[in-house]
User: Fold these one by one.
Assistant:
Number 1:
Amino acid sequence: MAEKEESRLKRLEMKLLGSFEMDSSDKQLDETVTRSSKTWELFAYLALNRARKVPLDEIISVVWGEGGRNPTSALKTLMHRSRSVVFEHLGEGFDLVNSYRGAYGWNPNVVCAIDVEDFAESCEAAALAGSDPEKQLSLYKSALSLYRGHFLTKHESPWIEEYREKMRKIFNDALFAFSELMLDACKYEELIAALLKITSIEPNNERLHSYIVKAQLRSGNSAEALKYYKAATDQLYRNLGIRPSEYLQDAYTEIMQSHGDMETDLSVVQTKLEESSEMGGAFFCELGFFKQAYQLESRIAERDGTCVNLALVSVSAQDGSLPPLGQLGNVMDNLLEVFTSLLRKGDVISKYSGAQYIIMLPTQTVEDGEAIMQRLMSTFSSRYPRCPLTVSYDIHPANIKL
């Protein structure tokens, strides 16, 4: 009897991470066979809720939302067409859904393995295996290998977006735990390869980029780490208009610290520290270094009774919104050229976001700082009279937390 029951079962693998896909033996069904996104959303919802009968009103709500004319009839039509698609590509035996009075439910004779569930279970098991790092790493590797992309990437239904964010959080928690374990195990090259692959899924994940920088640095390749750091921060500026997070700033600090190798000859140390005599104008640096320079200069000003001004220069469209990236890049480059050519050697500049510069001006008074900023703005306006964007600034004395 048990063998008979077993023979009636159909086995199916459903992939919901990335694009929708169903596989059975040598047959496959994916989103390319029909343009109806609701077909895939219907099957996904019923499969994820296969332990229960799902009321018609609930299905209508998640598939169509509020509104629509005669939604019950529309659902029946969708179900008929969706079944036909499955029969055509997987075979007549794959009747995935049972009809009940006032409800639909997943057919219990179709045993369905779903990648998103396997992924979440592996992540949970890894988190619980904290006393065994090797087991944790194995489970995290297994979980991350399942993550082909975010949950049903091409779909935008509210329930899908909510589920996607839930899975994305689990993914990020697993990714960061995996990265820490790999760093502790000194598996730098393997970690770099794994994370670079994941950047195609999470291109603007700052913490992900910071782990790549750290792995490159600890593998002995500080030049490559610095190069990647600059490329990542530039990408974030261009794509999101944001300044580096604390994770990337910490990675940059680690890069700088790596250059402090042991040296017993003070004259050699002094030569390394000295600037080239040809280098003039203000000092342009990364935000992580700017913060340290700002804190140091503020302490010196407090001790000596002088003043440090902090100016924030912002670029916006005429209506105050973030401007198009093409225009923004040119204006930001032109501003930096003006700043570095007019400001003094003791002044420090950094990019605060994709549309902002922050400038530190050690002066005798706040009025001196205001006069410097007015001169900078006047020079920029005269050099670039046709600038299509609005450039504004704000200036305050020190003791403002960055």
Number 2:
Amino acid sequence: MIGADGKMLGVMNTDEARRTARDLDLDLVEVNPKATPPVCKIMDFGKFKYEEKKKQADARKRQSQIALKEIKLRPKTDDHDLDFKMKHIRRFLEEGNKVKITVRFRGREITHPETAQRQIDLIVEAVEDIGAVETSARLEGRTMTAILAPRVKVQPARDAGAGVDAGTDTGADTGADADTGADTGAER
């Protein structure tokens, strides 16, 4: 049994453990029932449940939701319209969402799937700096689809013993602004 302050109280009878918890106006909670003997802890169970609920809510709040946005095209979509759709795709990828590009064929357009392939390749090429192909273009019935995912931004590794801090200003010694070379008047 574990006390309210976290100290081990040792092995004791169930009735004695309940009495100890009742004397402290706390609850006896079974922490590990599979251990031999079962491990119990004296705590305020209501407070424990409240803190667990808060932790879960906080974890959900920090969790990023990735949505799948869809852009629909046709093989005859004009260049200007395609440029406009590419702006939307860029925005979606910058927001961290995945993008599904769907090219829908109607009538005899299905006889030329290479036009849709060219459109998808053009879009992939235009956004390859911020997006990567997750699923390459494939024909499914009368639609050709591809999925783009945002590129993962790599955080630069920080070395504790690097010696030079990235935030230090080297232009402060001369009194000149490092970007423009103009005199800042810091030493006057």
